[in-house]
Design a protein that fits this description.
The protein has 426 residues and is an alpha/beta fold. It contains eleven helices and 26 strands. α3 packs parallel to α10 and α7 packs parallel to α8. The protein is globular and about 65 Å long. It comes from Methylohalomonas lacus. One of its GO terms (molecular function) is oxidoreductase activity.
Amino acid sequence: MNSQRRRFLQTLAAMGVSVTAAPLFADCKCLGGGRVVIVGGGYGGTTCARYLRRLNPKIEVLLVEPDARYTSCPFSNLMLAGIEPLPELRHDYRSLQDDHGVRVIHDCAVGIDTDIQVVKLASGAWLTYDRAVFSPGISFMWDSPVGYSRDTVTAMPHAWKAGRQTRILRDQLRAMDDGGVVAIAVPPKPFRCPPGPYERAGLIAWYLKQHKPRSKVLILDGNETFSKQDVFEEAWAQLYPGMIERVGVSGYGAVTRVDPATNTLFTETDRHRVDVANVIPSQQAGRIALETGLADNSGWCPIDPHTFESSQLPKVHVIGDASIAYPIPKSASAANSEAKLCALAIVALLADEAPPPASLHNTCYSMAAPDYGFSVNGIYDVRDGKINAIDRAGGVSPLAAPASVRAQEARHAHDWYASIVRDSFG
């Protein structure tokens, strides 16, 4: 511990400020030990915590997460359609603590000082670190579209952070009269889970077909194309002919303004008064990333692709949705993969060794009905300082597949979900 850091901690203690001080690892190089503070308890943060302890139990890992339970965004669209119950989406942190020795602190990170290597918490505590990992997810860009704010999310739920918002949207769908219109406003890229709005459209159509068959789904899209588009559109045509309409950006489908009082969505040329409005606003890195300077002018966090160390702040890593890791999409699978790479890099860096070569992956399943699934896969390496998709190492489910193949992929989707939950939360 350097003298500046020691004096700082002594001053805080004299002032009565709560300090959680790191042990003095005098023989850190021999042990390869140290302390890592992780901010964010989603798929990225929990995976990184678990694998740090698994790779080197001598590393002390502190996970900062305000909520006692995490509600999964993956599979939340199935809850909207009544296919999965909400409890199946909730996961706690007991295994991380009891089985893996991660110290979970239910508090909110409010700042970081990289000079003295301290993460500041809302409670007033200060956590010293040798390396820090931020996995803060996303935050919303309010007033994008104009008129959409924290005060409008009950009338026009986004349901892009699962939990209460998912329940609100589900209840609105149930209360809607048969013959109503459900609109999904999709923001311009980048945003969390690129196929998510289109999976949602199909699963809402599945629910409507069962219970309100005269109803329709309208997708007002701020993009011209989207992930797995051919397979989605094939599924919609087969399963829900005439029920789903999509207007892309060239057809003036981008929503520019909303009026929650009348449930009206405005595009450049049209207005759409609908029965249920699912407005997904534009997104950026989680609030703490913006406030600490981890994000650049794009609103996202640039990183070294070999280690996911921040390009903005030293000895701080950023993983998951908040990071700039193009062409890897912002997904749970990507966060899980980035977390493992980051853990490997940190173990090496704390032992003054070179991090291993970077290898990353993404697997994303989508559902159009309970027995109709498809997927996209990608494998990535790092060349010339950039993340690159490896040619012919991934791909999308084929078109015109038989029903048995779609049903098998639907089962695989459930297996994937169970697997990533175990891998992340233990």
